[in-house]
What we know:
There is one protein chain. By secondary structure, the chain is α/β, with parallel strands linked by helices. The chain has one domain (3-31, 40-248): 3-Layer(aba) Sandwich (Rossmann fold). It is 36% helix and 23% strand. It has nine helices and eleven strands. A hairpin with a 4-residue loop joins strand 8 (183-185) and strand 9 (190-192). The model has no long low-confidence stretch (mean pLDDT 97).
Amino acid sequence: MRDHEAKNQAAWNADSDDYQARHAAQLAIHGGLAWGVTQIPETELNVLGDVAGKDILEFGCGAAQWSVALAKLGARPVGLDLSERQLEHARRLMAEADVDFPLIHASAEAVPLPDASFDVVFCDHGAMTFADPYRTVPEAARLLRPGGLFAFNHGSAILDLCWPVGEERAGDRLVMDYFGLYRIEDDDEVSFQLPYGEWIRLFRANGLTIEDLIEPRPPEGATSTYRDAEALAWSRRWPAESIWRLRKSG
């Protein structure tokens, strides 16, 4: 593994139990079918569309709440994650829901699966936050069939520009350089971000056409186990998340 992969794997293995305890209730509000830190329902955003009968890869699945829900809708999901402890939680949730699908312990930067294996590759943060986009985007494109959907939710560049490294939340001033956004080091983990133009060039270079960029805004009165009231107020003024919806050229 590369250094950021090893660091992130160790961080998620160490925090997995606490993470699931902190967020399990919120992740269950809409049965696993909701996006982002305030869990906006998929029925409202319609990012994935009809999933019945489709082969779907959850790219950094964690405890696979999404994949469990998709399996119940008739999809054929596969969950992939770098953290073995997160996958242990996924196995528990699968057993509780009485569904079964493959779980793969691997990096999203080097997926041990054949080309054109999936109709959909997606994640809600997951691998696209914590893995190198210059490796994950080509992998997602490789794994998709022609006409397949690549969709992922990611922190917005605006959020990262206003969030000082090491602080608990973003402020109302630009504190990071926009040009050169790429690898963001924190004490425990490494995340990744690109300027908007660089994301677009990377998608195009890998045969992906942009269908939509959704910037979900928390509704009035929203609560979150991921963000406090001050952070949620910030997210109602400026976009904190970006959901890219992309189509592989046919």
